[in-house]
Design brief:
The complex is a heterodimer of chains A (473) and B (88).
Chain A (H helix, E strand, L loop, with lengths): L1 H23 L5 H22 L1 E2 L2 E2 L3 H21 L5 H33 L3 H35 L11 H21 L5 H18 L7 H22 L3 H24 L4 H6 L5 H8 L11 H9 L3 E6 L1 H6 L2 H13 L3 E6 L9 H8 L7 E3 H7 L5 E5 L8 H4 L18 E6 L19 E5 L2 H14 L1
Parallel strand pairs in A: 3-4, 3-6, 4-5, 6-7, 7-8
Antiparallel strand pairs in A: 1-2
Chain B lengths: L1 H8 L7 H11 L3 H11 L5 H41 L1
Helix pairs in contact in B: 2-4, 3-4
The chains are: A alpha/beta (473), B mainly alpha (88).
């Protein structure tokens, strides 16, 4: 009876996951979809605690279980509530790592059970009966720990604690590490009594996870997070096989498949192949040294007053937001500026590059927070058609997504990435904190073009000052 | 299930990539169920299983709860915006 009820709980969980994910892909239903998936998760978790039985015995250690759930919930809620919108990508990466670690720990404990059994009964029949289980345990361990280590590095990179790091032959070393870990895994499946091997695999996988993400530049981090996300999904699915648990299987495979597809979609948005992202060590040492040796030319600055004047008398202004806007938390000031210009009869739009910021859709979320209306946000293709008829383009802390090198410099590491073709507009005003190159670590020729003028300073402060000037014009 | 995953994500506006990734992130937190089972099965004298299982439950819960809350916070902003466009 209890088991049937549990099956129903898991069915509810599985259905809500699919439904939730489907609803998450539509702006109107997204929030409800998230809540539906969350409630399905709750049903599945409570069902497991009270209804799960193995060989007729219910689960014990309730104090530990509830203790763990409580601690996890409190920390999780606090962390998720407190985090600033700019730090969202880091947070997702961190939570993803936690899921990976969870999967790896499950594998460790389950293998511990098996090796205890093996100490008592090491008949050939028993060994062959557990081999499939060991295989799944090993897979869960490898994928889970790679995902954990990788996510931690991605998290550190996004908040600037970890710098890009690569050395020659790293790709070969990485492949070697993975091969050794896999070989050890295969050996362990054949000879499960060598339990020390499991810890070897754990260590190798952790090192592999670190080295795998280390050389990948910040601009590609969203792709990596999405990829690691689908890894954790697969690790969860391994757990599903291990316990023959339907809801874990559904959730895990669903995320594994959806995550992989999302990763590919993101790669497409940047016009790069996944292999290119993973092996290319984008923005690493090579490219920054190449950029440093290039002649930089001259750039010109513009005063706030002049900037305010040309914007006030323009017919159409397009704002290109980037990570600088997010860091300065300038989305509200940006909306204010838009309103002030509207009052003067200036048409204002926003051009959103698919990978502006640190995550796809990062800018949309930020601007939505400031109540910028949805119709004013233009995707890259639309915006590129409009730049020709635009008087002023105001770039707020964006850099690589407007770098013309992506179009005409074949040696540039971002060559081939579609960009916002802002140079088609009549005037370009660039707000940046300094002349330092962007996240990809490469110079931007746009800043040295005669049509371009620079407006240095923190995006929020500049926008507020600009707003004051515009009101005076 | 793989096809369901692909079908579900198929045509998503890039606006929703971040929340979608975050939502999917929360869903793979379902791995916490495995942690609960590990924990619940552990004999009371098997400290390794107890400690690792306990850690796994905490981490898994962090993934689930944190994931859903972060996603909700992102989507909250879309909702207010939606209302505004309706009233305009």
């Amino acid at each position: 009876m209890g088991l049937n009820l549990l099956t129903i709980c898991y069915l509810i969980g599985s259905v809500t996951f699919i439904l939730g994910l489907k609803m998450l892909s539509n702006p109107v239903t997204a929030r409800k979809g998230n809540l539906i998936a969350a409630s399905g998760m709750l049903v599945a978790i409570i069902g497991t605690i009270f209804l799960y039985e193995e060989n007729g015995t219910r689960l014990g250690n309730y104090i530990w279980i509830f203790g763990g759930l409580l601690i996890g919930s409190v920390i999780g809620t606090l962390a998720a509530r407190k985090v600033k919108m700019t730090a969202m990508p880091e947070m997702v990466s961190l939570f993803n790592g936690m899921g990976g670690a969870c999967a790896a720990l499950i594998s460790l404990v389950e293998f511990n059970h098996i090796s205890k059994e093996l100490a008592i009964n090491n008949s050939i029949e028993y060994i062959s009966s557990i081999q499939p289980t060991v295989l799944i345990i090993v897979l869960g361990l490898i994928i889970g720990s790679v995902s954990f280590a990788g996510s931690m590095i991605a998290w550190g990179k996004l908040n600037g604690k970890v710098k890009d790091f690569s050395f020659t032959g790293q790709n070969i070393l990485n492949l070697l590490l993975l091969a050794v870990a896999l070989a050890a895994g295969v050996y362990l499946v054949i000879h499960p009594e060598n339990n020390f091997l499991l810890y070897g695999i754990l260590v190798l996988s952790l090192i592999y996870g670190v080295l795998f993400v280390m050389p990948i530049g910040g601009a590609d981090m969203p792709v990596v997070i999405s990829l690691l996300n689908s890894f954790t999904g697969v690790a969860a699915a391994c757990g599903g096989f291990l316990y023959d648990n339907k809801v874990m299987l559904t959730g895990g495979i669903l995320v594994g498949a959806a995550g992989t597809l999302l990763t590919i979609l993101m790669c497409k948005a940047m016009n790069r192949s996944l292999v290119n992202v993973l092996v290319g060590s984008f923005g690493g040492n090579n490219s920054s040294s190449a950029a440093g040796s290039k002649d930089q030319g001259h750039y010109k600055e513009i005063s706030l007053n002049d900037a305010a004047t040309i914007m006030s008398y323009a017919n159409k202004v397009i704002i290109v937001p980037g990570y600088g806007l997010a860091v300065a938390q300038a989305q509200h000031s940006c909306h204010e500026l838009e309103k002030a210009l509207n009052e003067k009869g200036v048409e204002v739009k926003y051009a959103i590059h698919p990978v502006a910021g640190r995550m796809p859709g990062h800018m949309n979320v930020l601007l939505a927070e400031a109540d910028v209306s949805y119709e004013k946000l233009q995707e890259m293709e639309q915006a590129n058609d409009e730049f020709k008829t635009t008087d002023v383009v105001l770039i707020l802390g964006a850099n690589d997504v407007v770098n013309p090198a992506a179009k005409n410099d074949t040696s540039s590491p971002i060559y081939g990435m579609p960009i916002l073709e802002v140079e088609l507009a009549k005037n370009i005003i660039v707000n940046k904190r300094s002349m330092k190159p962007g996240y990809a670590g490469i110079e931007n020729d746009l800043f040295f073009q005669p049509k371009t003028s620079m407006l240095f300073g923190d995006a929020k402060k500049v926008l507020q000052d600009l707003l004051g000037e515009i009101k005076n014009v | 299930m793989i096809f369901v995953g692909i079908e579900v994500i198929g045509r998503v506006p890039s606006v929703l990539h971040t929340p979608l990734m975050s939502g999917a992130n929360a869903i793979h937190g379902v791995v916490v169920i495995g942690a609960i089972i590990v924990m619940g099965k552990a004999e009371s004298d098997n400290y390794l299983a107890l400690i690792l299982g306990f850690l796994a439950v905490i981490l898994g819960t962090l993934n689930v709860v944190g994931g859903f809350v972060v996603t909700d916070r992102m989507l909250e902003m879309f909702k207010t915006k939606k209302k505004n466009t309706n009233t305009n």
